[in-house]
Structures are given as structure tokens and as C-alpha cells.
TrEMBL record:
Gene3D superfamilies: 3.30.590.50. PANTHER family: GLUTAMATE CYSTEINE LIGASE, GLUTAMATE--CYSTEINE LIGASE CATALYTIC SUBUNIT. It comes from the Eukaryota. This is Glutamate--cysteine ligase. Belongs to the glutamate--cysteine ligase type 3 family. One of its GO terms (cellular component) is glutamate-cysteine ligase complex.
Length: 460
């Protein structure tokens, strides 16, 4: 909270930042076996990132893996992309090496840059491996769908279907999954309606569920009704956070413009999700839905039975209607067209946090927004982070902000550089081709320009 107020005081008057933006592309790394006519997820993320981080030519062009490399890069005239780890050990994230502007040349260069990223990633993989842009791997959860093979039912995930080794080995990721499970008091529960054709049984029961597994206390979940009829059942964070998406982040010229973009883009989120829908299969079964959103939401849902409304409130403070991965619940622009009846009358906020933010000078709309985020507990806290409170850092604030996965994210400027107020557009699904991903990226950029140029009103 104190870090948030410090950011607010430093940056609330920040003006005339350049109109910049960037995209994030996420890949699945798959391994082809031509002889067996088989495709599996490759769990070699760490090796691939290490190879990228040690590519001297890539470093000279300003690219590489910021999480692994040390020292400054000697950037050339054309800045190479950067690569980042993701939750799944079979995933990579790639971003442009420098932000895009809004000039025509920038927009026309996006597709070529995405092709370049894919080419660079491929060059640092085994000959049989390829970076593909699919939302989910259709056979994720099939015990034979990963290479190298590891048995499921590990200590962290305790999943019937996927091993602990499927998650990034950095301590943050398996700890994140384990803490969500522990806070819930049971495993996460994903039930996706199966697609019924004329030969599908009714009721249909997921044939992959093992009701006789007794490795962990949470194995009782399925015997207590976790696996629903007519649904594909999944039980681990990997089934949500192992999904790939296309995200766009915009830097506004000032805070007010950022708040306007956040509000006016928010109603477009469901439309963007529908336009990019690309998730028809889970665990090898056709599903009766076509997007990843609800599955990711359920995969990180850390609400307790009391917060879910399944039990009376006794130890928890609120009944919380949404997962921490969900649609926005707030508007934040000081726009006269934002009528009070557009706001959620049942919004849950931490009133103490809200009052402290208002006392610190923040207006009520923005204080309400952040006080809503603060109803969540932090999921991962490292001991070394608790030794001091540095108001020139944002680590404690970002620990909460970054684990509130809403479909739009309002991002204050980080300390120590020239980055401005930003808005992150998060609902879109990744597309198979670079052309499609570039097209949707540029489409959203043009929407923001239209919103600001014509002062459009999408509240209605």
C-alpha cells in the first residue's frame, strides 16, 4: 500500500509520454516424431532460454533473455526481440526488442517482427522442435503428451493428469500452484462442458478420471463430486496457465489518458475474446466452449469455501464473487459520461485500504479500483522480500497487482525509468499464424487511436 502511494505521488503528474505500445506472443514448444507420427509438448524451456541468453549475435542486437543475462547489450540499429519464461515448462514468451510507435511503418513492421521472433526461437531448439502459437495443446493432460516423460501426482500440483515437472522450475511457479491449492483447501477444479454429438453418451463421464487414486488427501476431490457429469475434468494450474494468449500494452501520454483507455477498452474485452476464440479441445475431447477464459479463471481460483459462498463467513472477511483471474469490476476514468449506475453496486473493496489511499491524495474512483485488488491475499511471498520496505521499489505492490489477472490492467509507471502510465489488454487468444496475431495487434492499436481521436463512448 505504501509503495502504491509512493508511485502515485511520484507519477500522478507525469505528462507528455510518447504514445508507445508493445505486444506479447506466447508459444508452445512441441516436439515432432515423424517415425511414430506423434507430437508432444517439449519440456525444454530452460535449455532453450539458456541458448537464447548466450547467443552473442542476439545480444549485440539488444535481444536475449533479460531474466538470465547480465551486463548491458550493445544494441544495433535493428533491435532484436527478447524472450521470457512462462508458467509451463513447454512455453516461451517473446516481445519486440523496442516499443512500437503508431506510425504506419511501425504498424507494417509488426508481422515481420513476429516472424523474426518465431525464426529466432526455432533456431535455438532441437531440429524436431517447433514454436507453435496455439492457445492450448489439445492433448495436455494425456500422460503420454510430454517429453521427457514424468509421472503425474507430484507433491506440488497433486494432479491426476500432469506432473509437477510440467511447471517452470523457478521456485515461484510450483509455489504459486501449491499455495493456491492450500488456500482453497482442495485442488483447483476445472469442468468444461463436453461437446455432445449424436453418439455422445448422456450423461457423459470423463473416462480419464481415476476414482481409485489414493496418493494425496486431495485425491478425495473426485470422490466428493469434483468431476461433473458431461464435463472434461482437470485439476491443476497448468490447464489454465499453460494456455497461450496475445497481450497488448499501451503507454498513455498521461494518467488521465490511461484511465480513459482502460475504461473504453474494457467493454470491448468480450468482443476481442470472441473474435479470437481458438480453444475447442481439452485433453483430447471436443468441448462445447471455444475460449480459454473460464478454464484459466478456475485454474488460479484460490477462494476458500467461505469466500465462494459455500459456507457461512467465519474466518474470511468477504464472499468474493469472482476468481482473481476474471473480468474487470471497476471503471476508473473521471469522465462525465461515467454514470453511477454503470458501477458495480456490490463491489467488494477493502475499506481501510480505500480510506488510506484517499487520505494519501488519491481520488475515490482510483482508490476504489486498487482497494478492490487488495481484497486478495498475496499468493507467493519470499522471506527476503519482507526484510525491508523500499518505497523506491514496487515489488510488494506488484506482488498483488500482477496476480490480479483481470481482462484489462492499469499499470502505474515503475520507478527508475521513463516508462509512463500503461494499459494492458489481456483477453485475446493467440492465433496460429503471425499474420493473424499482427492483424489483431494492429486492430487494437487502431481502436485506441479512434477512441482518443473521436472521444468515443463505449460505456453504453
Amino acid at each position: 500500500l505504501q509503495q502504491l502511494l509512493a508511485i502515485w505521488r511520484r507519477a500522478k503528474g507525469k505528462e507528455r509520454d510518447a504514445l508507445l505500445w508493445g505486444d506479447e506472443i506466447e508459444y508452445l514448444v512441441v516436439a515432432f516424431d515423424d517415425e511414430q507420427r506423434d507430437v508432444k509438448l517439449s519440456l525444454r524451456q530452460a535449455d532453450i532460454l539458456e541458448a537464447l541468453a548466450n547467443d552473442k549475435d542476439l545480444l549485440k542486437q539488444g535481444g536475449g533473455v533479460p531474466d538470465l543475462q547480465c551486463g548491458r547489450n550493445n544494441k544495433s540499429s535493428k533491435t532484436a526481440p527478447t524472450f521470457h519464461p512462462e508458467f509451463g515448462r513447454f512455453m516461451l514468451e517473446a516481445t519486440p526488442g523496442a516499443p512500437w510507435g503508431i506510425h504506419l511503418k511501425d504498424l507494417l513492421d509488426v508481422e515481420d517482427d513476429m516472424k523474426w521472433r518465431r525464426q529466432i526461437a526455432k533456431e535455438h531448439m532441437e531440429p524436431s522442435e517447433f514454436p507453435v502459437t496455439m492457445t492450448t495443446f489439445p492433448l495436455l493432460g494425456d500422460k503420454k503428451s510430454i517429453t521427457p516423460y514424468y509421472p503425474p501426482s507430484g507433491e506440488k500440483l497433486r494432479s491426476q493428469f500432469v506432473p509437477d515437472e510440467i511447471a517452470n522450475p523457478h521456485i515461484r511457479f510450483p509455489t504459486l500452484a501449491a499455495n493456491i491449492r492450500q488456500r482453497r483447501g482442495r485442488k483447483v477444479e476445472l469442468n468444461v462442458p463436453v461437446f455432445h454429438d449424436e453418439k455422445t453418451a448422456k450423461p457423459w463421464k470423463d473416462p480419464t478420471v481415476d476414482y481409485d487414486m489414493h496418493n494425496w488427501p486431495e485425491d478425495d476431490d473426485v470422490r466428493n463430486g469434483a468431476a461433473k457429469d458431461d464435463c472434461i475434468y482437470m485439476d491443476a494450474m497448468a490447464f489454465g496457465m499453460g494456455s497461450c494468449c496475445l497481450q497488448i500494452t499501451f503507454q498513455a501520454k498521461n494518467m488521465e489518458e490511461g484511465r480513459t483507455m482502460y475504461d473504453q477498452l474494457s467493454p470491448l474485452g468480450p468482443i476481442l475474446l470472441a473474435l479470437t476464440a481458438a480453444t475447442p479441445i481439452y485433453k483430447g475431447f471436443l468441448v462445447d466452449t471455444d475460449v480459454r477464459w473460464n478454464q484459466v479463471s478456475a485454474a488460479v481460483d484460490d477462494r476458500t469455501p467461505e469466500e465462494l459462498g459455500e459456507q457461512p463467513l467465519k474466518n474470511d472477511r468477504w464472499r468474493i464473487p469472482k476468481s482473481r483471474y476474471a473480468s474487470n469490476s471497476t471503471y476508473i476514468s473521471r469522465d462525465s459520461r461515467l454514470r453511477p449506475d454503470y458501477l458495480d453496486p456490490d463491489l467488494i473493496v477493502d475499506e481501510k485500504v480505500k480510506n488510506r489511499l484517499i487520505e494519501g491524495g488519491m481520488d475515490e474512483l482510483l482508490a476504489t479500483h486498487f482497494a478492490h485488488l487488495f481484497i486478495r491475499d498475496p499468493i507467493v511471498v519470499f522471506n527476503e522480500d519482507l526484510r525491508e520496505l523500499d518505497l523506491n521499489k514496487v515489488d510488494h505492490f506488484e506482488n498483488l497487482q500482477s496476480t490480479n489477472w483481470q481482462h484489462m490492467r492499469f499499470k502505474p509507471p515503475p520507478p527508475g525509468n521513463d516508462t509512463g502510465w500503461r494499459v494492458e489488454v489481456r483477453p485475446m487468444e493467440i492465433q496460429i499464424t503471425d499474420f493473424e496475431n499482427a492483424a489483431f495487434s494492429v486492430f487494437v492499436v487502431l481502436i485506441t487511436r479512434a477512441i482518443l481521436s473521436f472521444d468515443l463512448n463505449f460505456y453504453l
